[in-house]
Amino acid sequence: MPHESVLIAGAGPIGLACAISARRRGLDPLVIDAGPIVSSIVQYPVGMTFFTTPERLEIGNHPIVCSAAKPTREEAMMYYRGIVRAEGIRVFTFTRLASAARESAEGTIRCTLVPTTGDPATRELTTDRLVLATGYFDRTNRLGVPGEELPHVTHYADEAHRSFGRDVVVIGGKNSAVEMALALWRAGARVTLVYRGTGFKPSVKYWLRPDIENRIRNGEIASRFAATVTSISSTHVAIRTADGGDERLAADRVYALIGFLPDFDLFQRIGIELDPVTGRPRLDPESLETNVPGVHMAGSIVAGRDISEVFIENGRWDGEKIFGDAEARRRASVRLGETPRPVGE
Ligand SMILES: Cc1cc2nc3c(=O)[nH]c(=O)nc-3n(C[C@H](O)[C@H](O)[C@H](O)COP(=O)(O)OP(=O)(O)OC[C@H]3O[C@@H](n4cnc5c(N)ncnc54)[C@H](O)[C@@H]3O)c2cc1C
């Protein structure tokens, strides 16, 4: 059976940052991803601008070049492709880690990899260290209403142009939903935004907020706040409105952009202990090693259900904690608390 000294599951920004930390210590990790590299960013709304300034998205001290103050989705994808090339990171894309088990207390970790392309050829390999950096974009929160699985309902953003001249309902009220609603309106769709909250949260990007509020005020985008979806049919979305009434909204396409969850089933199959309420893994905070020896976690998944706690900006030093010595760990924690970017390290 093939053996890898380090296997990293997830080629998101944090999985790639971990690979750089490992390579700079003489290791040659294999990184696998269930999709393309940075598949989460691929699923952002087309043309989206990050809320983070470029230097805080950088990994391995490679500079991001972007044309405005903050990078776009497209510039970030280009950047991370360049990282893989420049650092010579070995990546197998469209390959999912299906399970992993420690063979014995001292033995290696046996991993099962499954192609996500329909090819039935499962692969097994062993590794000394497994880093899970699997993020949360694979699993979407569900409304749990009839009709949610109909083909015109999506839980991800996509190209707004598809909806030109059509009735579209966007469910949700955070950045993804707001961004998609605006893009759809600009692409000529008739948009209704349905949100269970009574107003937008302060976390909505400061440049999106006046835009969406003005569109709603002008009647260009319809909105239903404090409303819950009760069912979806092939032509309509049924909602319970703020005053307790029922309403049917015409919908050729439905975007349920209501958030994501880590793959807790995978973590439990590996034997990682999770807090039953928060979903947080039991981890050594210094090395991010779980209760399963040799299995580490990195990036957004270390915060369990609280997916907005760890993002690229503050997760990108996790590889230093996993592969570095005490001094590298100390620097990683200092950098997290710092405002300016550390230069020259
Ligand atoms: C619209 C939007 C805008 C955002 N803007 C910002 C921003 O401005 N700044 C910021 O810092 N953060 C931002 N974020 C959050 C940021 O995208 C995440 O914090 C970040 O992607 C987490 O990185 P990660 O590497 O931990 O996980 P991910 O980026 O989710 O990467 C995980 C990877 O693991 C793969 N994977 C999953 N399961 C498996 C498996 N079993 N086997 C193999 N591979 C697997 C996935 O395909 C994926 O490529 C934004 C998020 C969204 C949705």
Q: How would you characterize this protein structure?
A:
There is one protein chain. By secondary structure, the protein is α/β, with parallel strands linked by helices. The chain folds into 2 domains: 3-139 and 260-337, FAD/NAD(P)-binding domain; 142-256, FAD/NAD(P)-binding domain (3-Layer(bba) Sandwich). Helices cover 23% and strands 23% of the residues. The chain is built from 9 helices and 17 strands. The chain has helices at 13-23, 39-42, 73-87, 175-186, 209-217, 264-270, 312-315, 318-323, 326-337; strands at residues 3-9, 30-32, 90-92, 95-102, 109-115, 123-132, 139-140, 153-154, 167-171, 190-194, 222-224, 228-232, 236-240, 246-250, 253-256, 260-261, 295-297. Strands 1, 2, 3, 4, 5, 6 and 17 form a 7-stranded mixed sheet that branches. Strands 8-15-9-10-11 form a 5-stranded parallel sheet, covered by helices on one side. Strands 12-13-14 form a 3-stranded antiparallel sheet, with no helix packed on it. Helix 1 packs parallel to helix 3 (73-87). The chain starts with a strand and ends in an 8-residue tail after the last helix. The structure holds flavin-adenine dinucleotide. Flavin-adenine dinucleotide (FAD) binds next to helix 1, helix 2, strand 4, helix 4 and helix 7.
